Amino acid sequence: MISEEQFHQELHIIIENALREDIGEGDHSSLACIPSDAVGKAQLLVKDEGIIAGVDFAEMIFKTVDENIVFEKKISDGGTVKYGDVAFTVSGNQQAILKAERLVLNSMQRMSAIATKTKHFVELLEGTSTQVLDTRKTTPGIRALEKWAVKIGGGTNHRFALYDMIMLKDNHIDFAGGISRAITQTQEYLKSTGKNLKIIVEARNLEEVEEILKNEGVYRILLDNFNFEDTKKAVKIIGNQCETESSGNIDQNTIQEYAACGVNYVSSGAITHSVYNMDLSLKAL
Hints:
Structural class: alpha/beta
Strand content: 15-25%
Order of helices and strands: HHEEHEEEHEHEHHEHEHEHEHE
Shape: elongated
CATH topology of the largest domain: TIM Barrel
CATH class of the largest domain: Alpha Beta
Largest sheet: 6 strands, parallel
Catalytic activity: nicotinate beta-D-ribonucleotide + CO2 + diphosphate = quinolinate + 5-phospho-alpha-D-ribose 1-diphosphate + 2 H(+)
InterPro entries: Aldolase_TIM (IPR013785), NadC (IPR004393), NadC/ModD (IPR027277), Nicotinate_pribotase-like_C (IPR036068), Quinolinate_PRibosylTase_N_sf (IPR037128), Quinolinate_PRibosylTrfase_C (IPR002638), Quinolinate_PRibosylTrfase_N (IPR022412)
Number of helices: 11
Helix content: 40-55%
Number of domains: 2
Strand order of the largest sheet: 6-11-10-9-8-7
Family: Belongs to the NadC/ModD family.
Organism: Bergeyella zoohelcum
EC number: 2.4.2.19
């Protein structure tokens, strides 16, 4: 996975780009009717229920816009919220608060929705040893936020991007000329470059599982679109030779049965790409 330093760099890039996109040459609505030295206070009002996420990120945004803004957290990331709750208050320059408002809301609404859905999936797996993984099926440009939200909801981050883990999927295998050839070439590449990256290999059927196991150095086998019966067989065949992950058709109706098959992980793109934003608003006090 990426380092904490890399992660925070991603967050700052997101903030800088989003403010550039939203403010441009200036917030003329605020400049037109609010004095530059006017101060005020606002609160983040929850108008929904679920898991709140993005409170710490909101503080980063406000402090980026104006380091003198006073941010008072009322509910921490990961807290359960209901209609009428106040997540935080912010006070300071009114123009600065308004510059940050939309980015804060857009980010927190999305992050809270992801954290809420992830938490639901995690709760469905209580009592099992199976963990919920996210995927790279994220919104371009804000992956760091969405993966942060998954962690807030109790999920586990998969690889962050193409550079921090090897994942040999169907197209890699087909382009390389087969499973064993793809694995061998990957190991040679890692040795020649001096990189220490874990290798995950996707299997489309039980025969491919068996071929993967003939090769050394595979960290995890991804069981892609396996039915429940074949997943159980695959887990038995693999044993303790490497980790197992189920992917494809993972939703709230199937996740428990896949976990019951004994896999170490279930990965779901739905927790990031299929959510409805939590209803939040920033209201002046």
